[in-house]
Amino acid sequence: MYTIIFAVAGYFFLLLTVRVMARRPGGQLTFYEFVLIFLIGGVIIAATAANDRSLTNCTCAVIVVGMVHRAIAVAKVHFPKVGAVVDGVPLVLRQKGEWNEEAMQRANIARDDVMAAGRGNEIRTLDDIEYAVLERSGEISTIKAERK
Amino acid sequence: MSDASITRPVEDSVPKVDGAVAVGEDLDFQRRWWRFERIIWSIFALILLCDVLEVFGRGYFAKAERSTVDRTMHLKYERVEREHAPSIMSISFGPSAIRNGEIRLFISESVVKELGAERIIPEPASSKIGNGGITYIFPATAPPATVDIALSPSRPGIHDFTAGVEGAEMVKAKVTVFP
């Protein structure tokens, strides 16, 4: 019983902690993010399994985490607000060639990050970026300005 | 049974920026979320501050001491503990605790169950149960004489316990166990 409660509590606490860490650009984990995920995950696992490291207990914990995860995935489909809370919403960083300073500061995004994303889209200079959007995944999408 | 899949006409429901780029931005929600983030980080900071100040136990402020008026017993324990975290409850006895070459220490059942007494050092010569607890009998000569009880609380909550020398004044105290 305690395992189920701890697993659910651990899942939501981990989700909350990761979610309130400001999003950073890049869809792939960097080395220091690997450290974060493994360390936080390991600590939560230790608290969830506690002294009972039996296969039964750990199996129950894994099933609970899987079920909570699936329930959230279903809820995201039916209730868009759940998706907004869990994954966040896209954020426009650059609009019509102008920076959205509020979004840039709050999301801890540097202009170099936007330029790096632009290079991946064959954009050569910042001036060529008309729109930049911080996606829910953490990636930055860029849309090239149309030259007249 | 038809093999045809269910289809729906395409609806362009994603909000657009400048009426041109379908992004689905919700700035009002995002601003509320940023406010929520600040509140959560404040709570996290408060939790860490409480931990530094040892509100959650495992530190100087968690330590407590109680004595009986007749000085038969002096108890050192932690008033704030954490579930499954080890600690020591130490009981020192005065001269009046030794009767007929032995000390009879009574502890309530909660020390064994909720507070999770795992070991008692030194091992008692014998023990007996009754009156909602256990009485341990230790052969003793003269003070100083101390018994340590290794604890590992089994469940969170506020737990009352009683300890004392049989036939003398008892000490009653509470221990708060955090999960």
Which SSEs are present, and which pair or pack?
The complex is a heterodimer of chains A (148) and B (179).
Chain A: H1 2-20, H2 31-49, H3 55-78, H4 80-87, E1 91-95, E2 98-99, H5 101-106, H6 111-119, E3 129-134, E4 140-144
Antiparallel strand pairs in A: 1-2, 1-3, 3-4
Helix pairs in contact in A: 1-2, 1-3, 3-4
Chain B: E1 16-17, E2 21-22, H1 27-52, E3 63-67, E4 73-78, E5 80-82, E6 87-93, E7 102-108, H2 109-112, E8 117-121, E9 126-130, E10 133-139, E11 145-151, E12 157-165, E13 170-178
Parallel strand pairs in B: 5-13
Antiparallel strand pairs in B: 1-2, 3-4, 4-6, 6-11, 7-10, 7-12, 8-11, 9-10, 12-13
Enumerate the spans of chain B where pLDDT stays under 50 for 5 or more consecutive residues.
none
Quickly count the helices of chain A: 6
Report the span from N to C terminus of chain B.
Answer: 55 Å
Tell me the total number of β-strands of chain B.
13
Shape of chain A: elongated
Overview features:
heterodimer, A: 148 residues, alpha+beta, CRO Repressor, 2 domains, 6 helices, B: 179 residues, Immunoglobulin-like, five-stranded antiparallel sheet, 2 helices, 13 strands, 17% helix
Mind explaining what this structure looks like?
- Chain A is elongated, with a radius of gyration of 20 Å.
- Chain A has a four-stranded antiparallel sheet.
- In chain A, α1 runs antiparallel to α2 (31-49) and α3 packs across α4 (80-87).
- Chain A contains six helices and four strands.
- Chain A folds into two domains: 2-87; 91-144, CRO Repressor, CATH 3.30.240.
- In chain A, 57% of the residues lie in helices and 12% in strands.
- In chain B, β12 and β13 form a beta hairpin.
- Chain B is of the alpha+beta class.
- Chain B starts with 15 loop residues before the first strand and ends with a strand.
- Chain A binds chain B through residues 16, 20, 22, 50-51, 81, 84-85, 88-92, 95-96, 103, 106, 131, 133, 143, and chain B through 17-18, 21, 23-26, 29-30, 33-34, 36-37, 40-41, 83-84.
